[in-house]
UniProtKB/TrEMBL annotation:
<dbReference type="GO" id="GO:0031901">
    <property type="term" value="C:early endosome membrane"/>
</dbReference>
<dbReference type="InterPro" id="IPR051118">
    <property type="entry name" value="LST-2"/>
</dbReference>
<protein>
    <submittedName>
        <fullName>LST2 protein</fullName>
    </submittedName>
</protein>
Amino acid sequence: LLQDNVLNIINQIMDECIPHERANRDFCVKFPEEIRHDNLAGQLWFGAECLAAGSIIMNREIESMAMRPLAKDLTRSLEEVRNIIRDQALRDLNLYTEKMKDSLKHFDVLFAEFELSYVSAMVPVKSPKEYYVQQEVIVLFCETVERALRLGYLTQDMIDDYEPALMFTIPRLAIVCGLVVYSEGPLNLDHKPEDMSELFRPFHTLLRKIRQVI
């Protein structure tokens, strides 16, 4: 609770002191709902201190080792910010020195970087590229259904009545369409497996065989 209160005060000071120079946090919209809560900042501070001290988080040794330098920088920056704010509070509450502004900006950037790294290590967070690929798959399924209706493979009644067979039919049609009709889309096998949707990535070799048969 104390850590949350301290970070809330620092955030209020940054909103007042460097309102137009805050670090970009658009990535937060990708966090699961259960992650986005009022105590997250305090948990991040605690996590940074643990990592800086040499601890391993949640049995994730590789991720912990990768984040440790950033965690150390963040804890040092936070201590510097606290000292500067404490010193300034004893002098003039209405004055924000350049040193104070620079320290706040540096801390804000480090905290945002650590927040993204830490949460990404704890829960799956899709990158913008992964979101784009996922949207391509959605478009493929939509265009497959429209094409199947146009060619009479499916009927609107089957869709309206939630025909159970569609659970198998539509994905199979989408794979065929993705390989043959919309071959430049998300099932483009000329791309590397890692560039494909995680839905199809494990089946890259099998998809090649299916395309050869078709």
